[in-house]
Task: inverse folding
């Protein structure tokens, strides 16, 4: 293991928190970092000082893994030194020798904490002078540099680096409760689930399988979405319930006013997710709904969908443009280039853009809603996606 090269982790938003909360967040973050590295069998050791985390090991392998962990603003591959300016300057020069060319616009960014004897500006100057002796003719440009070297002098030593690899931001997974996403074969819902995970919420998914009513590609795609989401919570697993809602479709298309099909369907899926959430201590239901995207996503109809359960329904993509969602989907890996047939055969020619809870309840009373919901919840298949693989778990009466 390399002794003086490390990955430095920078953490966001924690300064907003009180000391006990900060502590709990740091604990969750280090737990997640360890899980991610252990899942990939990476050798490492980890040190934590005052809001900075240093991970020793093979930094080229460690940095890309760590940059996917929620709650991290950015990571840098750094070299540790003593906090003597001479030592830091020597290390800075090593970095500069690889990348600084004569004529380049260059800046040294120096910081110091609990160190006396020189100011940050003096430190930056000492380092720039040292580099100038070996690689002269750079242009100091603090506003718009082409190349930067960062130096941090702290009581426990010095840190030098010249690159910041952007992280995901957000909060450490596991610090913001548990929720279930209605996870479809589409583009929106996996992004919605990911955005919740990024904000620290431990997520699971419920996919409603329409059977003969749904395009043949939907089930595989929804499972693949769960599989990909699991790569964002290494070592933890992403549970997926697959509920059979074909009997509901059969009953509803036979008995109810077809104009409102998409509303009954969304309300039914929400109820199924609610039943599963209640059994698994999950506090909210997340959907990929998006204002004005389709007829069932007018403000009015979303109100009717919301009124189907008491549990909080969260819609992280409410105000996103499709293009914005697609950019995230591509980046997180859930965008499928050629998804295949995911159409729904039950969608009416002219889905209603307006409705009312009373009207929809009265239509729904023509079928045995509660029994259909219960049956879908009780018979749901239980799958676990973990570290990019997915497998079914058979639940027996004795399993925990
Ligand atoms: P997505 O919105 O995920 O791209 P979609 O466009 O096919 O999928 P919509 O008709 O926009 O689906 O449905 C709105 C939301 O309802 C979805 O974002 C998802 O949360 C949920 N949803 C739709 N179909 C299903 C399904 N078969 N199983 C589980 N949830 C679903
Ligand atoms: Mg959608």
Result:
């Amino acid at each position: 293991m390399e002794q003086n090269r490390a990955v430095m982790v920078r953490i966001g938003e924690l300064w907003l928190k009180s000391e006990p909360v900060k502590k709990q967040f740091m604990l969750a973050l280090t737990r997640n970092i360890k899980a991610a590295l252990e899942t990939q069998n990476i050798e490492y050791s980890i040190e934590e000082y005052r809001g900075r985390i240093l991970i020793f090991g093979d930094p080229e392998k460690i940095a890309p893994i760590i940059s996917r962990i929620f709650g991290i603003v950015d990571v840098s591959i750094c070299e540790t030194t003593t906090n003597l300016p001479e030592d830091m300057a020597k290390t800075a020069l090593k970095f500069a020798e690889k990348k600084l060319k004569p004529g380049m616009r260059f800046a040294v960014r120096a910081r110091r904490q609990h160190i006396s004897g020189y100011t940050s500006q003096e430190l930056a100057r000492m380092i720039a002078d040292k580099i100038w002796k070996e690689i002269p003719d750079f242009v100091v440009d603090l506003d718009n540099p082409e190349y930067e070297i960062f130096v941090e002098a702290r009581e426990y030593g010095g840190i030098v680096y010249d690159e910041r690899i952007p992280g995901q931001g957000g909060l450490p997974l596991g610090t913001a409760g548990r929720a279930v996403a209605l996870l479809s074969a589409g583009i929106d819902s996996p992004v919605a689930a990911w955005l919740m995970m990024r904000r620290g919420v431990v997520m699971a998914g419920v996919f409603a399988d329409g059977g003969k009513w749904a395009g043949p590609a939907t089930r595989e795609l929804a499972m693949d979405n769960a599989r990909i989401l699991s790569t964002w919570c290494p070592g933890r697993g992403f549970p997926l319930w697959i509920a059979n809602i074909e009997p509901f479709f059969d009953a509803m298309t036979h008995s109810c006013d077809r104009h409102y099909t998409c509303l009954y369907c969304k309300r039914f899926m929400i109820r199924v997710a609610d039943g599963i959430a209640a059994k698994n201590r999950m506090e909210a239901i997340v959907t990929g709904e998006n204002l004005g995207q389709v007829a069932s996503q007018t403000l009015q109809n979303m109100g009717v969908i919301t009124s189907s359960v008491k549990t909080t329904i969260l819609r992280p993509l409410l105000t996103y443009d499709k293009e914005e969602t697609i950019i995230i989907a591509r980046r997180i890996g859930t965008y499928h280039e050629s998804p295949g047939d995911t159409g729904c055969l039950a969608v009416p020619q002219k889905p209603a853009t307006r409705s009312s809870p009373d009207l929809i309840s009265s239509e729904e009373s023509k079928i045995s809603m509660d029994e259909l919901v219960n049956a879908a919840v009780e018979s749901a298949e239980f799958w676990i996606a973990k570290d990019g693989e997915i497998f079914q778990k058979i639940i027996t009466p004795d399993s925990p």
Remarks:
- The mean pLDDT is 94.
